[in-house]
Predict the structure.
Amino acid sequence: MTTQTLTLKDVIAENAETLNYLLDQDDVTTLTPAELVEALEDSGREASDSFESTNQANGRALTAAAALLTSALALTDDDPDMPVLLRRAQSRLGDAEI
């Protein structure tokens, strides 16, 4: 299996249409950090299960983005969500690199 390097710029570019659609909604809900990472993981898992290689790449990008966001979130070290988020992000990252 070859390793593909993903950047946040790649993730945004690949998902620009969806991101713009979501940002244009009037009823955008504020998510907690844990909910945001969970939503990214769910999207990544759904795309990764596709037979199309583009969708699989997007799935890896979303799970890598979840890992990046988890490590960048401004949670305190003693926040009970932090270890859970980091473990989940690590397990989902797979072969994707940032």
About this structure: The longest helix spans residues 53-72.
